[in-house]
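Hey there, shall we discuss this one?
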Amino acid sequence: MLKVQYIKSHLVQLLSILTVGFPFVGYKILIGLLIRNLYEGPFALCAALLFILWGLIDLVLNTICLHAITCRGNTHYPSCLLALIFRKCKRLGYWEDLGEALDVMLSFVLVAYYVGGAMYGYLDGSQVKVWNICTVFNVLGAGIARINSSFTSNRNP
């Protein structure tokens, strides 16, 4: 059951999941579909399936994280596959945040590939709408994160 106090106390993290995590899921799955539409052969099929699987795993992780925060106030779940890998690997466990940072960078590389390559015509209309919704939420998330950073830095001079 949702608990209002958990939502209030973890609002920024929840907004991050909604405006960063879920849009990145969309980008990964849509890039997988784009690869499937653009290329043929076993390597292309494998690459497409890997991106789709990566997106689906991140969808599950973001959903678990969202549930854990809103229902139990637990903020210790990883929100993406790379953070989970870094957490589980003893050598990399110290660098768990690097897993999330790499996920952000790789997701932005996917966006840059899509936009820079003018790939709009290779997805169908509904897929482009999903891409655009992801982008709108992601841009709003960047603004929210920046505002939060400003408030946080002013509280701790």
